[in-house]
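Recall that a protein's primary structure is simply its ordered list of amino acids. Everything else, from secondary elements to tertiary packing, is in principle encoded there. The following example makes that idea concrete.
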Amino acid sequence: MSESNGPGAVDAAGMPDWEKRFRAPRVSLPDWAEDAPDRSLFVSNATGTYELYAWDRATGGQRQATHRPNGTTDGALSPDGAWIWWFDDKDGDEFGIWRRQPFGGGEDEPAVPGLDPSYPAGLALSRDGRTAVVGRSTDDEGTTIHLAREGEDPVEIYRHRESAGVGDLSHDGTLIAVEHTEHGDAMHAALRVLRPDGTPVAELDDTKGGTEELGLEVLGFAPVDGDTRLLIGHQRRGRWEPMVWDVATGEETDLALDLPGDVSAEWYPDGSALLIAHGFEARSELFRYDLASHELTRIPTPPGTVSGATARPDGSVEYLWSSAAEPPAVRSTSGGVVLDPPGMACPPSVPVEDAWVEGPGGRIHALIQKPAGASGPLPTVFDLHGGPTWHDSDSFAAGPAAWVDQGYAVIRINYRGSTGYGRAWTDALKHRVGLIELEDVAAVRDWAVSSGLADPARLVLTGASWGGYLTLLGLGTQPDAWTVGIAVVPVADYVTAYHDEMEALKAMDRTLLGGTPEEVPERFEASSPLTYVDAVKAPVYISAGVNDPRCPIRQIDNYVKRLETRGTTHEVYRYDAGHGSLVVDERIKQVRLEMDFAARHLGA
């Protein structure tokens, strides 16, 4: 692995470290077939575009399974290992159909003939590869779920206007778990278990009978024929924890693990234990929980973040790990790196430092990276994460590392609305959407300046998706706080965005704001960057995908027209993809444009 030699470091060929981080081959955690565990599926950027790859562990053979100009990352491997399923949309618009191809290679074919294009809403495949449960979402129909048996027409088994999705299919194919939000709260799902003919078997709804808004999630059926236990996540103690629910008897087995943060889990292949993933204060760790003895055993992993983990039939655990300083790697508890793609090594970055800042809603966790040996005040990038139901962690990110290479400090903030700090913190942003998060951003900004870390005359506010939305909203509501704004695939005009976005996001917006733009116009107005565009003082850079179904282009154009009318300094970059690009060259181009814009307007 190469060493980073400070801001602007380049190798002998003239390629800077930040660009090498984007070009270095990456792989995802491999998915493996339940009944053919030597067959795996993973995502890699080895060709310069993120695509799906088939891997036969028995022979060591790997092949690229998908070949599309704008890349492919949404795929699944059938439990028998015979088929690779992948979602075929148009240039990143997320609207399309499932296709499949033989694991060993061959022609792609429509996986479920008879189903029209839609947005995906979950997929579950039977062990014999002959039955699929397919979730779909469209603006006209809401959510529908179909049972598709090979050689037969698909049959609709669920329909509702509100958002829903396929959770899992039981090991013997007799039970189907569905997450739904029929109660109208898209942030807190309820669960229903159906038979293949669509008749209900069991219901679990933590949104009923109390004043608290509690969610549930499907983690998976027990991997044993005839076993009716369903592993689920719940929020009954104010954070995510796992529980075993027997859908036949109704018995609920609360694990009550003595761990302080959010906890998720998946089954070991024989159903005797659970692989526990524990996240706390932007780091994570793994445990094995024995269901018979109730013993919790820590699985050693390095300090940092485990982005995914799976238990293999031999009892080993494979996991995708990284830290802010160390690039990601797929490792195994049996020793060594599982997948080590050929090509240039990814340069490391600098470690992250923690800061806890008192804010209007409680302590705010901020993660800070700065050039090695640098002392403030520094030009500082406030990089706001998307979601909003997401959080930044001590994990490797090429974008922040690129800013650090250029001599900037980078601050990432887990504002209210972020996951990982309890249910109350995540749910706090309702109704005053955007404004709540920016109160926390302002508190961290004030701390960074008063501590001597950040130069108040050289502050960049940036982010992608929800982070891009907060960037534009912050430039308008805090116009004297920021020197430059860089918004990537943002919400810019909330009302137009609502009317143009995919149906599942409309449901989320109704939950966050308490209704539609027609029902609560004052809330949409208060939370829309377009409302405050006339107050913007800082130069604004916006990049947007013209096929984006999440932050559609028309609402961005509306915002840009207002900037033009006012003569505000701005630049706009539009590219032919959806909510971000899967093409490495395009990602590098975008980062270069963003850094160049900041440098020109900061005088750096």
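Residues 584-602 form the longest helix (19 residues). The first strand starts at residue 31 and ends at 33.
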